[in-house]
Task: structure prediction
Amino acid sequence: MPASVVAGNWKMNTTVSEAAALAAGIRDGAAAAGNVELVLCPPFVSLAAVRDAVKGSAVKVGAQNMHFQESGAFTGEVSPGMLKGLCDYVIIGHSERRQMFGETDESVNNKVKAAQAAGLKPILCVGESLEQREQGKASDVISGQIRAGLQGVSDASDLIVAYEPIWAIGTGQAATPEIAAEIMGAAIFETLRGIFSGAADNVPLLYGGSMNASNSGEFAAQDCIHGGLIGGAALQAEQFLAVAAAVAAAKA
Ligand code: PEP
Result:
């Protein structure tokens, strides 16, 4: 079975000092949360402070994005090499980046490959819109995003895939565990199997979209869900740790 993972996507929230304090609070409660890998993904400018705050603990750090080129005339961008030493993980292809910042399947694919080449672990995000779901296209959209995002990728050992239906992100309207499991256990898992064969069995699959302390246990109770990518509920240490504890308990 893949490792259990609970990752917090802090998005464009927290100053550097707020980020350090939040990370310290999570660090202090992490051991009690149980057997689950915790990953904190603050804004770029707080990566060093969060790394320092969790030093010596099992808590890991991730970035929310990166460019796929190593250097050059890309104003405002951050390269894989720049992230090395600051974090172990990187979120790639979040729907907010796809929708608001022109992220395409092609750039997502380039970023996954660049992350792996740099020794960073990609958290590849996929998810359908409400319109696509209502048209009955959710499974096809998700399979397509996975195939395109992982084109030419042969190593599944450091990969995480997050299923985040766009209609559930930040809305307070989480998917049901059954809806999530239908996509994750079929469209995502079968597509990964087609690409990686048996190695797909060890890829952690995270649900994301209004996941919180109250519903995370039900999601993690599904065999094909190994944790969560958490937005709003990741911004308070107590809530984030409660999500982690519920996932750990469901997977124990
Ligand atoms: C996210 O943006 O990755 C997310 C899951 O957000 P929220 O938990 O706030 O829905």
